[in-house]
């Protein structure tokens, strides 16, 4: 029932091109937010830069995409297409990235802080390994939680949605 | 690859690109680009065009592998 309103016709080519523009626009927003974030953290004069807006835009956008993609079941398809054309599985890539970033951050912190607080060579070496182990124990699980866990959960949800869709199709075939 | 079959069918019906576009519910440029082979329409749009011109999908859109239309 449309109460006399005419259905708005949409040209599919125009809609496709508009979607392409929206995609580019989102990339642009992410780039601008990223630049703003880097500037505020490293170059701005303020002691406590207000970066919540940028963080919310960046994290919120990523989370929204992940939730929508898994709810629609296309996340599994993305992973399948990636794994088909790549030597490393996406799962392995995420796992390794989290591990490398964790090790990288830990090494940076250990190097900087051991040199800052170590008075003698022995103490510096001792502090380096102490901080390195502590950072590895903290950052690797945290990064796994941020980078790998959402991926695993989204993949699981997406697989479930796909299974459900397939079951629905089978039911329709039987009818 | 130009779609001459579509252009011929449109002319057969004495329709301009604008008129066919209106019938199908797209813009004139879209019809023009399909005829020029610069836009691949979805199956739904192909069907709409076929219904508007009383033709089958084969009549307007089928092409043999590697053949020029």
TrEMBL record, chain A:
Protein's UniProt keywords contain Membrane: yes
Transmembrane segments: 21-43, 55-75, 95-113, 125-153
Keyword annotations of the record: Membrane, Transmembrane, Transmembrane helix
A Pfam family that the UniProt record links to this protein: DUF6773
Organism, scientific name: Halobacillus salinarum
UniProt name for this protein: DUF3278 domain-containing protein
InterPro entries, A to Z: DUF6773 (IPR046664)
Domain of life of the source: Bacteria
Automatic annotation (TrEMBL), chain B:
Record carries keyword DNA-binding: yes
Domain HTH cro/C1-type: 6-60
Keywords of the record: DNA-binding
Superkingdom classification of source: Bacteria
Record-linked PANTHER family: TRACRIPTIONAL REGULATORY PROTEIN-RELATED-RELATED, TRANSCRIPTIONAL REGULATOR
Protein name: Helix-turn-helix transcriptional regulator
